[in-house]
Design a protein that fits this description.
Layout: E1 9-14, E2 27-32, H1 38-46, E3 64-69, E4 72-76, H2 87-102, E5 109-115, H3 122-133, E6 138-143, H4 150-164, E7 171-173, H5 182-193
Parallel strand pairs: 2-4, 2-5, 5-6, 6-7
Antiparallel strand pairs: 1-3, 3-4
């Protein structure tokens, strides 16, 4: 069974974890650094240009945004690690992300986004270690793959697999530009939710 991705609609945005609605549907959370291309990937997944707001300035997703995709909640978490906002705002984002994961929710799948062009970053390692410790099901979407040759993509997957200590098949090479890996990611989401 496939999800009707084109039925995606924005539901609501929340600035505090205490405001989050009770989970009544399967949930897929999207987490990653501020400039990893989360909004672009979400838009590509649902086949829409502007469902999630894409900005040239990283760190624009400052709240937790809920989207309904054919009865599944896509939960867009604020990007982490963006330096050009105040310490207070960074702390609010961290509290918001931690507050979301501290709740009793369905957590069908967490899509952890990592820029394929770089070595493992400390914040990404911390996020993946947290997901493993909590026993949350996750896949790593390696974004911006269109910026690398096929050979370089393969080298980066091997490197990141080692650095993160996770198997290669838990990582999906993706590009919001070209659509690479989007069908694979959709199948992982459907397997986790349907």
């Amino acid at each position: 069974m496939a999800l009707k991705y084109d039925s995606a609609r924005f539901v609501r945005s929340f600035g505090k974890a205490s405001e989050l609605p009770e989970p009544t549907t399967p949930e897929v959370a999207f987490a990653g650094r501020s400039n990893v291309g989360k909004s672009s990937l979400l838009n590509r997944l649902v086949g829409r240009k502007a469902l999630a707001k894409v900005s040239s300035t990283p760190g624009r997703t400052a709240n937790i945004n809920f989207f309904d995709v054919d009865g599944v909640s896509f939960v867009d978490l604020p990007g982490y690690g963006y330096a050009k906002v105040s310490a207070g705002e960074r702390q609010r984002w961290a509290d918001l992300i931690a507050g979301y994961f501290a709740q009793e929710r369905s957590f069908n799948l967490v899509v952890a986004l990592v820029d394929i062009r770089h070595e493992a970053q400390k914040l990404d390692q911390q996020m993946l270690a947290f997901l493993e410790e909590e026993g949350l099901p996750f896949v790593v979407a390696l974004t911006k793959a269109d910026k690398l040759s096929r050979a370089k993509q393969d080298r980066q997957v091997s490197l990141l697999s080692k650095q993160f200590g996770i198997p290669r098949d838990q990582m999906i090479v993706t590009s919001a530009e070209t659509g690479l890996g989007i069908d694979v990611l959709r199948r992982r989401i459907e397997d986790a939710c349907l």
